[in-house]
Design brief:
Layout lengths: L4 E4 L4 H9 L5 E2 L14 H19 L6 E12 L2 E3 L5 H11 L3 E12 L2 E13 L4 H9 L20 E5 L2 H5 L3 H10 L13
Parallel strand pairs: 1-2, 1-3
Antiparallel strand pairs: 3-4, 3-5, 5-6, 6-7
Helix pairs in contact: 3-4
């Protein structure tokens, strides 16, 4: 039986690790797209649009056939309607942490699966509550090097775990790939994570 080829439109090692966690060893196809938020676009609309754009961009960069399944994802940390991207520098990162301190924010992660029959999309929204943080520990965290390339300026799977008082939703979604929704999409495309690499219908 010929197995589907699963591609991942992301250079994120965390997303690839999460897929491996459920038995999917995907080939990486990075997708470089314009991630500027459009005027009047809600955070959820933004995530949905960028996720689909990543999928279509990566699809156009390969030579897919009917066995190809391409996954794309995008994550936004959202507080008071504002999307927190990756910090520009130290002061920006510290300012993000100060605003997240003692507050509950949303993490919206979209995942899309594109095949020869079209694109399917799912959205996961989780709520993360930080305890109060002081300036010294924010500085120590920044100086660890961990938050410098992370949306929102923190990594749930790293040292920032000690800041999180409560997480309601998907831990893997906050990391960058909600596995429940991802598995739903894969199964609908005939790829069963429990079978290892997957199986066609």
């Amino acid at each position: 039986m010929t197995l589907p080829v699963v591609l991942l439109a992301s250079a994120s090692p965390r997303r690839r690790e999460l897929l491996r966690q459920i038995g999917i060893d995907a080939e990486i196809v990075p997708a470089n797209v314009d991630e500027m938020r459009l005027a009047g676009e809600s955070p959820n609309q933004y995530v949905a649009r960028v996720t689909r754009l990543k999928a279509r961009t990566a699809w156009g960069a390969v030579s897919p056939d009917r066995r190809t399944a391409l996954l794309a994802a995008d994550t936004a940390v959202v507080l008071d309607g504002e999307i927190f991207g990756k910090p520009e520098d130290r002061e920006h990162g510290l300012a993000m942490l100060a605003r997240l301190s003692g507050r509950t924010h949303e993490v919206a992660t979209g995942v899309a699966l594109l095949t020869a029959t079209g694109v399917e999309f799912r959205l996961n929204v989780s709520h993360v509550t930080f305890r109060a943080l002081d300036r010294a520990e924010c500085e120590a965290y920044w100086d660890s090097g961990e938050p410098q390339d992370k949306a929102g300026g923190y990594a749930v799977q790293g040292r920032a775990a000690i800041f999180i008082r409560e997480l309601a939703g998907s831990y893997s979604g906050v990391m960058g790939l909600p596995l429940y929704e991802t598995a739903e999409l894969l199964r609908a495309a005939g790829i069963d994570p429990l079978a290892g690499r997957g199986a066609t219908r």
